[in-house]
């Protein structure tokens, strides 16, 4: 910290020294990642008040670290304009929201999680971020598998407060600490990406990488999640394409990018017209019917506030209208539209959807360009994570809240750090 700004009181100076410590930032980043990833488990054990207190405490400490280290960061262009626009539109929706207090609490929750993501993104370099996520993923997957073994094999009873059904003895599906098989499957998929990048950067021992991938493979299979399985195929294809692009000589790389882009559009069109067989292949028929019914109900309500939406809520509140009126065909009370794009349109209207698609599209484009042109393998991580989140958003709304929003903001901010038009504009003006 600048000596002119250093506090004179010894106790306050000691606090500042701790906040400036790289070790404190590393621990705070890892704890923040773990808490956000395990919000379902934390909420199940200590309730909403406990979770909110934990996140608020972490956010205050993260804000304090960013403040005392403010001279160490290049703030221009560090936050994507589209991120600010999306959060801003969520805040503005309070003015016409049909449930204003729900919107206020939803926005505050979104901002707190977003602040923690910004702290992780700008307070740690990319390899450190990948390593921190890798450590947390190993913990989450290991404990999830242990809980399932306890529930399904040793005690043979469901652990209801965690949402664990104890199906591991019959080969799944398992839910672990994430509350549902799809959420556990998605987290496991992102964990596989993380472990692979760790291996590529040689930041962990080979034995650790092998053990981590085996653990992730076992958990992934046991989730029996059709959503995660389909997303895994898409991510695998994207990883192959990215690997080929990275190995292409620089003078031919742009043409290769365009070729893969055309191929992706054609593949998307084929997948759309062949969606029936694809759904059958991944055994997603039952889940698809549930989603179709939910989407129809949500779309009918969206028409009533087509442009501006009903107001931001984040996760749905089943005791508040209009969420109270929506039910799934399997009798469950939905907490989202199970489609991020429909969900955003429903809550923030067409304007919000345009901002969200621009935010996601720009973050994905930036991260893909960086991953294609930078030699460091760590740059592949944000690109593939955003591919997974973008694809899964057609079947889940995870990207809008908690761990999905956290990952989204981390990747978007890291991509903006590498390719910011505002920084480029300033360099041009200075030059």
Automatic annotation (TrEMBL):
Mode of membrane association: Multi-pass membrane protein
Transmembrane annotation, as ranges: 21-42, 48-68, 75-96, 108-127, 139-159, 179-197, 204-222, 228-245, 257-274, 344-364, 376-394
Domain O-antigen ligase-related: 212-357
Major localization listed first in the record, in broad terms: membrane
Compartments where found: Membrane
Keyword annotations: Membrane, Transmembrane, Transmembrane helix
InterPro entries documented for this protein: O-antigen_ligase-rel_domated (IPR007016), WaaL-like (IPR051533)
One Gene Ontology cellular component annotation held by this UniProt entry: membrane
Top-level taxon of the source organism: Bacteria
Pfam family name, one: Wzy_C
Protein name from the UniProt record: Exopolysaccharide production protein
Classification of source organism: Bacteria, Bacillati, Actinomycetota, Actinomycetes, Micrococcales
């Amino acid at each position: 910290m600048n000596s002119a700004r250093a506090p004179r009181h010894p106790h306050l100076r000691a606090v500042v020294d701790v906040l400036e410590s790289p070790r404190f930032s590393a621990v705070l980043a890892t704890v923040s990642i773990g808490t956000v990833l395990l919000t379902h488990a934390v909420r199940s054990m200590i309730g909403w008040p406990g979770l909110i207190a934990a996140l608020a405490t972490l956010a205050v400490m993260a804000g304090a670290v960013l403040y005392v280290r403010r001279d160490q960061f290049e703030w221009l262009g560090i936050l994507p304009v589209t991120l600010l626009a999306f959060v801003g539109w969520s805040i503005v929706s309070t003015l016409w929201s049909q449930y204003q207090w729900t919107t206020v609490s939803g926005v505050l929750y979104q901002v707190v999680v977003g602040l923690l993501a910004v702290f992780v993104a700008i307070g740690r370099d990319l390899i450190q971020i990948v390593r921190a996520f890798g450590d947390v993923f190993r913990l989450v997957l290991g404990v999830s598998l242990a809980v399932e073994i306890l529930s399904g094999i040793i005690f043979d009873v469901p652990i209801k407060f965690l949402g664990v059904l104890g199906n591991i003895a019959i080969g799944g599906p398992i839910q672990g600490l994430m509350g549902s098989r799809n959420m556990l499957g998605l987290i496991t998929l992102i964990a596989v990406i993380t472990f692979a990048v760790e291996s590529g950067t040689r930041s962990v021992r080979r034995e650790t990488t092998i053990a981590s991938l085996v653990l992730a493979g076992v958990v992934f299979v046991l989730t029996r999640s059709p959503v995660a399985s389909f997303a895994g195929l898409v991510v695998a294809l994207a990883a192959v394409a990215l690997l080929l692009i990275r190995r292409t000589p620089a003078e031919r790389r742009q043409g290769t990018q365009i070729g893969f882009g055309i191929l992706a559009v054609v593949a998307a069109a084929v997948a759309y017209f062949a969606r029936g067989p694809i759904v059958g292949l991944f055994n997603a028929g039952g889940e698809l019917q549930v989603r179709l019914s939910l989407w129809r109900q949500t779309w009918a309500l969206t028409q009533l506030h087509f442009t501006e939406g009903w107001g931001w809520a984040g996760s749905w509140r089943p005791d508040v209208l209009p969420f109270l009126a929506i039910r799934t065909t399997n009798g469950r009370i939905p907490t989202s539209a199970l489609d991020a794009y429909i969900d955003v349109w429903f809550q923030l209207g067409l304007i919000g959807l345009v901002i969200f698609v621009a935010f996601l599209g720009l973050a994905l484009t930036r991260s893909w360009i960086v991953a294609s042109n930078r030699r460091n393998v760590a740059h592949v991580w944000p690109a593939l994570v955003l591919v997974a989140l973008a694809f899964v958003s057609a079947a889940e709304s995870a990207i809008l809240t908690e761990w999905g929003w956290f990952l989204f903001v981390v990747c978007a901010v890291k991509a903006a750090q590498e390719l910011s038009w505002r920084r480029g504009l300033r360099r041009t003006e200075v030059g």
